[in-house]
Specification:
With 328 residues, this protein is an alpha/beta fold. The protein contains 11 helices and 10 strands. α1 (32-44) packs parallel to α10 and α8 (245-256) runs antiparallel to α11 (306-324). It is globular. The two termini are 29 Å apart.
Length: 328
């Protein structure tokens, strides 16, 4: 794994990090013991970036991270969390400084720290991005020492472009993978220009790009790949990257032909993301130590050739883009 600066912040992170949604919930039955083992394996492999959120398992993910880090010596990894999705209803009017400070205080307790490394607005309603007072409030909380920096996790490219207009926004988290290629156009160009860190999430399209899911795969009732297939609980783009399931399976079979001998499709998909120098860190999840180790090793794959990159673009434009490109 490569190490580099996290945008304008004084952190150095590995280009592959640990996405902690799975160990919190909504991915079927993953025990706390398995979650701890997966995170420890990721850290043992050298990862120095962890991404979580206060709603992942209603704080379970944050607490597991705190418990694991408490037992480890050496340099502490950068831990990014998110705030805002605890609002009910989740509306722009709820993004007040008081509410955000309450969420931040809760995460400080869960993560057992005095200051959060990074807090990200958690896919806020678009109107939030047109309320400067929200970002002024975050800057005040930063000056107060409760957070070291703040960013925004977004669903749409347009929201990312709007968010980075605020000078205090140091990072954007966005879905970017073989099935969601639109960010690597104007948005990445602007992020580079402003030295904004990019966190690439949903890198394997909820497992589709692992190549292990078939039409017969069963998803548990508490797995979002079951209950959010059509966007019933949150943005459908978070589940299979918004790609219709059957279309995704068809595209996976074409991508499979491009995977180099000896590599897994998951490693190939992660290496594809790292071909963009705009991506600061990619955050695949892991439900066990083996997956965490495999994610770290993906960074060691040889760079993909121009022909392979061109072939993935052709598959995207022919099969996937009609369903996702203009939507996100």
């Amino acid at each position: 794994m490569k190490h580099h600066a996290f945008g304008r912040m004084p952190f150095t992170v590995t280009n592959v990090g640990f996405g902690a949604w799975q160990i919190g919930g909504s991915w079927g039955d993953i025990s706390e013991a398995d979650g701890r083992a997966a995170l420890n394996a990721a850290l043992d492999a050298g990862m120095t970036f962890i991404d979580t959120a206060d709603v992942y398992g209603d704080g379970r993910s944050e607490k597991i991270i705190a418990d694991v880090l408490k037992t480890r010596s050496g340099e502490r990894p950068m831990v990014a969390t998110k705030a805002g999705r605890r609002l009910n209803p989740h509306v722009a009017e709820g993004y007040t400084k008081a509410n955000l400070e309450g969420f931040i205080d809760r995460s400080l307790t869960n993560l057992a720290v005095d200051s959060l490394d990074l807090v990200q607005l958690h896919c806020p309603p678009r109107d939030v991005l047109y309320q400067p007072e929200v970002f002024e409030g975050l800057s005040e909380l930063q000056k107060a020492g409760k957070i070291k920096g703040y960013g925004v996790s977004v669903e749409k490219v347009e929201d990312g472009l709007k968010a980075i207009e605020y000078p205090g926004v140091v990072s954007i988290q966005i879905i970017y993978n073989i099935f969601r290629q639109r960010p690597d156009h104007l948005f990445f160009q602007e992020a580079r220009r402003r030295n904004v860190a990019i966190i690439a999430r949903v890198p394997l399209a909820s497992g589709l790009l692992s190549g292990k899911i078939t039409r017969d795969t069963h998803f548990a009732s508490d797995d979002h790949r079951n209950f959010n297939r059509n966007g019933e609980a949150f943005d459908v783009g978070e589940t299979f990257a918004g790609v219709p399931f059957e279309v995704g399976l068809q595209a996976v079979e074409e991508v499979r032909k491009l995977v180099p001998e000896g590599a897994t499709m998951a490693a190939f998909a992660l290496r594809w993301i790292l071909m963009s120098d705009a991506v600061t860190v990619v955050i695949p999840g892991a439900r066990n130590p083996e997956q965490a180790k495999a994610n770290a090793a993906a960074a060691d794959l040889a760079p993909l050739s121009a022909d392979v990159m061109s072939a993935t673009r052709e598959i995207y434009e022919r099969l996937i883009a009609p369903h996702v490109h203009q939507r996100w």
